[in-house]
Amino acid sequence: MKKLFLLPLFLVTILSCDKIEDFGITPSEITYLPKIELVGPTLVNINCGDEAYDPANYSASASEGGSEIELNEVISGTFFGGSTVSGPDHYTVNYSAVNKDGIPGSAFRNIYINPCQGDVSAGDISGTYTSSIVRNGTTSPQYQNVGPIYIVKDGDKFKVSEATGGWYTYGRALGGAYSALGLEVTSTDGINFTSDQTLTVNTFGGDLTLTSMKVDPATGIITLKSYWSFDYEFVATLVPAN
Predict the structure, then answer these.
(1) Which helix (H) or strand (E) holds 75?
(2) Which of the four pLDDT bands, split at 50, 70 and 90, describes residue 207?
(3) Are 132 and 228 contacting, i.e. CB atoms less than 8 angstroms apart?
(4) Residue 2 gets which letter from DSSP?
(5) How far apart are CA 43 and CA 151, in angstroms?
(6) Average of pLDDT values for 129-153?
(7) Whether pLDDT at 198 is above 70
(8) What is the DSSP secondary-structure string of 194-237?
(9) Is the pLDDT of residue 21 over 90?
(10) The pLDDT of residue 11
(11) What's the rounded Cα separation, in Å, for the pair 203 and 183?
(12) CA distance linking residue 150 with residue 115, whole number of Å
């Protein structure tokens, strides 16, 4: 008696089907990441007497696979809080875009606009300063020539960009998120400056107050002392930078 072998015929039947079974494989696609191109340098430093800041010289564009896409721009003043580049401050400009697949891209620009140096003999302490700082009575500065520290005249007050002289901002290189912001001082004699404010050190918290602030009319050097409620005293020597 002869045996029948049906397996080859079965395989032929499977392979000859008009439709091959879908195994859930998704065809691959090309994704173009957002490309952000800046016009002008990424670091801009404008000193007193320089040509004024012109946004047209510092623009940006975003594209995806060669086609232009929407670009978002957010401006943040580090010390004085402006949302446009206007007046002395350190501004960060964040450019961002998102492609069709929801993948983000970003680029940054830093803009420093330095205030003009005031006439200290007339009680005007406006200007850009470098800072050397000691904490809790150390004999030599733990951080030297850091900054910039900005002082800006606002009516009969002066705004100081950083009330510890930049201990955490520059000394520890933690940036504006750890700055003691908002200090405003006044003076009746053009030498001794005072404030009745209670400030804080960003991120860490706690109360910070101005202990004293005095300018040497002969040199323009300012000694700024502040006390933080975590039992730290900062003494910053501010030297005119321009």
Answers:
(1) strand 72-77
(2) very high
(3) no
(4) P
(5) 21
(6) 93
(7) yes
(8) E----EEETTTEEEEEEEEEEE-TTT--EEEEEEETTTEEEEEE
(9) no
(10) 40
(11) 17
(12) 7
Measured between alpha carbons, how far is 82 from 75 in angstroms, rounded to an integer? 8
Residues in Cβ contact with 47 at an 8 Å cutoff, skipping those fewer than 6 apart:
114, 242
User: Rounded to whole angstroms, how far apart are CA atoms 187 and 194?
Assistant: 6
Report whether 34 contacts 64 (CB < 8 A): yes
Q: Which residues, 6 or more positions from 224, have their beta carbon under 8 angstroms from its beta carbon?
A: 160, 163, 165, 210, 212, 213, 234, 235, 236, 237, 238
Answer whether residue 224 shows pLDDT above 50. yes
Residues with Cβ within 8 Å of 59's Cβ and at least 6 positions away in sequence, in order, are 38, 39, 40
Task: Tell me which amino acid residue 199 is.
Answer: L
- Which of 167, 170, 180, 161 lies closest to 136, judged by CA? 167
d(CA 206, CA 180): 10
pLDDT value, residue 6: 43
Partners of 134 in the β-ladder: 235
